[in-house]
Structures are given as C-alpha cells and as structure tokens.
Design brief:
Blueprint lengths: L1 H9 L5 E3 L7 E2 L2 E2 L6 E5 L13 E5 L2 H10 L4 E3 L2 E2 L10 H10 L3 H19 L14 E2 L5 E4 L3 H9 L30 H7 L2 E4 L7 H17 L1
Parallel strand pairs: 1-4
Antiparallel strand pairs: 2-3, 2-8, 4-5, 6-7, 9-10
Helix pairs in contact: 4-7
Amino acid sequence: MNPIIELAKQYNLCVIEDAAQAHGAEYKGKKAGNLGDAAAFSFYPGKNLGAYGEGGAVTTNSETIANFVNRYRDHGSSEKYIHEVEGYNMRMEGFQGAILNLKLKFLDKWTDLRIRNARIYDSLLQDIDDIIIPRRIPDTKHVYHLYVIRVKNRESLQNFLFDRGIATGFHYKYPLHLQKAYTHLGYKNGDFPITEKVMQEIISLPMYPELSEEQITYVVENLKEFLSVS
C-alpha cells in the first residue's frame, strides 16, 4: 500500500481500498480501511464479519467523502425530499446493524482461529511440490477470508474432494477482462497471460473459524491422495 499511496500522491489520485474481505487485516501496523482515502467493507453473510443479509460500510477520515457517501446512499439527499445529486437506496437495515454489533465482539477471536487454521494448512502443505500455498507478506496481518492454493487440474481436484465430502470453491473462476460485462474494452484471451494462468489453477480450501485440525488434516490427506494418482 505504501508505494500505491506515494504514486497516488504524485498524480493527485484518490486511493480507495477494497477491504471487503479484510476485516481486521493490518499493513505495517495500520488497520485495513485506514490506509487510503476511503475503504469499502462488505458484510455479506459469508464474510469474516457477516450480517444476516446484505450490508456494507465505507470508512474514511475525509468529511467531504463521508458527506458524499451519506447523500449517495440515501437517494442523493442530505435533507428529506431535497435531492442534490442522483443517488441510490443503499441504507442498511437496522436489524443487520444489530446483528453486526453483536458479532463484532467475536471478530478478533474468529480472526485468530482463521490464522491458526491457515498455519496448520501451511505446515501440512509447504513441502508438496505440486502445490503453491498463500504467501505471507512481512509486516502484515492476514485474516484469511479464504485459503487459496494453486494446483494443476483444479476441476478434477474439486470433484475428487467433493466425492469425499469436502467442499471447495473457485474464487474466482474467470478474470475480469474476459467477463461479458467488459467486452467493450476489447480485451481477449491471451492479453493477460499471468492472470489467465493463475485463474486456471486457484482453488479455495475450507476455511472458517470453527474448522478443526482434524478436519484440515482430512482435507490435506485427500489432496495428497489426488496428487499421487493424478
């Protein structure tokens, strides 16, 4: 983030953090959501801090940005019936806020459990030549919303694990430049070869606070079995 922020200052750019999966993450002693000009957090139920429905938040130290967001989320209005800009109805339900307020008390504990589980995965997978495990960057705190490895034949691996009661995911299956929504940009297969290669190899293993060491060992044993026969 530091080089990004320096570059932004050089060109007078605004830095907006995508902190949707980074609740409690840290970079050089600073919390995610407190690094750039603003940050967006997701409270989708599957996130590290999830509501019971849709929700999210923007953090910022800028009064100008905070005022803009408050208007934009409420039909472009800062006073009832007066609309200064075109906006949206993005007001999170109070019920979701109540759920989040309760769950927030457990976030640090859940984060510690995610880190513990990631380290168990690391220790069991680090010496397997056919797997690339996540890299921990110095001076950071990773919160492991996902535990993503790289492996060949990931679709076959997913089917193999599914047959043994292990759910996995592809986060994400297709790169943005090949999505239909961005065809107007004119990119084609081969324009970003590293991205395209990685997207064919990534697979997310089970990761959540309540995951036990026994369950992780079971996942890894079956992963090893797949590699031994594939």
